[in-house]
Amino acid sequence: MRFINREISWLSFNERVLQEAQDPTVPLLERLRFLGIFSSNLDEFFRVRVATLKRMVSLGKKAKKTIGESPKKILAQIFERVITLQNKFNFIYQQLLQELEQENIFILNESDLTPAQGAFVRNYFHNEVRAVLVPIMVDAIEEFPYLRDHSIYLGVLLSDSTGGNKPKYSLIEIPTDNVSRFLVLPNEGIKNFVILLDDVIRYCLDDVFYIFPHDTYKASMVKLTRDAELDLLEDFNQSVMEKIEKGIKQRKKGKPVRLIYDAAIDSEMLDYFLKRMHMKKGDDNLVAGARYHNFKDFMNFPSLGNTHLLYPRQERLLHPNLKQNQSIFQVIKTKDVLLHYPYHSFDAFIDFLREAAIDPKVTEIKITLYRLAKNSKVANALINAVRNGKKVLVVVELQARFDEEHNIFWSDRMRDEGAQVIFGIQGLKVHSKVCLISRKEKGEIFQYANISTGNYNETTSKIYADHSLFTADRQITEELQLMFEFFVNTYKVPDYKHLIMSPTQMRKRLEKLINKEIDFAAQGKAAGIDIKLNNVADHDMLQKVAEAAKAGVKVRMIVRSTCTMGSLSDEVRENIEIISIVDKFLEHSRLLIFKNDGDELVYLTSADWMIRNLNSRVEMAFPVFDQGIKRELLDYFNIQFRDNVKARIMDDEQQNSYKKDQNPPFRSQEQIYDYLKEKTEIKKMTLMGPTADAKSDGILSVASTTNVLIKK
Predict the structure, then answer these.
(1) Would you tell me the crossing angle of helices 6-22 and 71-102 to the nearest 10 degrees?
(2) How far is CA 552 from CA 206, 363, 518, 592, 601, in A?
(3) pLDDT digits (tens, 9 = 90+) for 97-153
(4) Exposure string (b/e) for 450-485, b if CB count within 10 Å is 16 or more?
């Protein structure tokens, strides 16, 4: 089987994001925000993946042996694909500008302003912007100024129209940390006007450089992307936190991997800047871009009150088994509860922690944290638990890329309050998401758990689609206890019977489950595997899946991002279907279903199928025992696989063709919301008691609802 290069496959995913920006059925301002997501994704791709490949170039043949191809060859393919996508991006942006104007929204630049608008902009500049600007006169200093990653700069050429003074060059960092990227101008009737901060500064350059005799200004944007990999050298005199903090500082001064500049930049200014930066026009990390960079800011483009240009707001659902002002422990003790974010509210998990913090019977809280929100309610709830006398153990993964600083901040806070904070296991990232609460009931310790496919982060829970299981099942909680004991005493690896853990056993256990399906197929029994993951790039696992398909096992895969499975033989291809769904919510949940001759085995997991997840991270796949929840997850997968609106077919040519069939339009994220909402309403009707006219009102049973959604 031929494999697709991982980086090229990821770029194909980002093209699917770009497709959302181009889709006329997506609300207009949401399309603009998808351009911002595309841009943000691409920045991170260069900081991490391109930077890694550039590091590997110097390894020569050793690098090729490691990744299967020459890093130089891959980099060339990447830049070729990126240029194509960037051109498509620019075309879509121009298209969106025209559509915005049809909605009476006009994005102006400094040359479009009327005298009245110009006066408004200049007043705003003096009151809000001028004081935070730090212009650097480049030609007056010996060393070229340091350009920060994430930041954007105006390169300014100052000229004298009389020719009496030599040109001068300056750099101005756009202060988006202090001032909004967008300024809304006074409207004129139904017409709305917005100008970018960059153009506010361009308009007022004469107020910036008034002390010079120059009277002509040319300003173009430049942006430098740096290597973001943390270089954690072994220094046994430093703590893990000290190493991470040092690594973050080093990251901010990482090697340049991409310099983007406005293609319309003055050629003399570009030559001057490149010479001062010790770069040449032929360098492969130079990219001629459009007028504006850091398009990620467009994710926060003002709505101007145009709600019809945004996705309709959906009310977060309350789980039918969780009621306000009812102990969540009482519910979980009798029945497992599964939440689906963002359809269900993350507040249920916060309430779980808050109740534990003040419950006199709760003795201990143990939790793993991977990505914490900036203003984390989770961390605050844990601090409250400490203050209420609970023993709190927090396993924090400091190396959650780009969230290290938040994690360090909250680790310090929790440790200062008295929580026991440990930083995982040396050499292994702790990526599993688990919370275990111990409660003393009638002299016995009883445990309650939450296990999630997503981070304990209330911010991302609003846009990431994840599953979160509450359970008091001893088969699960007793093994979670062993896992936390392992974090404290890493010399003893537990023997898990129900949980599937990496790096110790996950690969072998998954292969065993796949082999079992192969055996069922050979016996003519029901055999199939449903896989939903973010990334699938582990060649051994893909080979195993292909082997199963060749043996007659029906394989359905939903992969959001990277999938490196390439060309397949006809006998394999006929048993494998792979789709990717990109829609308003980011598909982040991970679900594995093994048909098991009709008695399905269902697992939720934190692990993608990548070498790092299976070999060098602490990851978990956990079984779902509750039959009702198991059925719900089977429905969830089937609803998603029926999508014929936002699903793309993943093939070795990476065409990102939309999945089309003869059925009516079926958009899975909307259908899942309706499915879960109907279950909530049915539960309410059940609690109210049977009514004589239920059937006449069109009320469906859960079974009939599922039948309508899945088989319609």
Answers:
(1) 10
(2) 73, 51, 7, 18, 19
(3) 999 999 999 999 999 999 999 999 999 999 999 999 999 999 999 999 989 888 999
(4) bbbbbbbbbbbbeebbbbbbbbbbeebbebbbebbe
CATH of the domain at 663: 3.30.870.10
Report if residue 321 sits inside a domain. Answer: no
CA 464 to chain centre: 7
Of 137-141, 259-263, 681-685, 689-693, least confident by mean pLDDT is: 689-693
Residue 431: active-site member: yes
What integer pLDDT is reported at residue 697 of this predicted model? 34
The first and second tokens of residue 373, run together, are 């929100």
Kindly state whether residue 323 falls inside one of the protein's structural domains.
no
Whether 27 and 170 map to the same domain: the answer is no
Asked if 94 and 111 sit in the same domain, the reply is no
Q: How far is CA 522 from CA 511, 527, 552, 570, in A?
A: 16, 9, 8, 19
Q: Widest CA span of the chain, in angstroms?
A: 94
* pTM of the full structure: 0.90
Same domain, 533 and 644: yes
Q: Which of 435, 233, 481 is nearest to 339 (CA)?
A: 435
Number of structural domains (the chain) is 4
Higher per-residue pLDDT: 564 or 247: 564
pLDDT of 198-224, one tens digit each? Answer: 999 999 999 999 999 999 999 999 999
- Compute the mean pLDDT over every residue in the chain, rounded to the nearest whole number: 89
Residue in 431, 467, 498, 539 annotated catalytic: 431
Displacement of CA 141 from its chain's centroid (Å): 41
Asked whether the bond before 503 is cis by omega within 30 degrees of 0, the reply is yes
* Cβ–Cβ < 8 Å for 409, 421: no
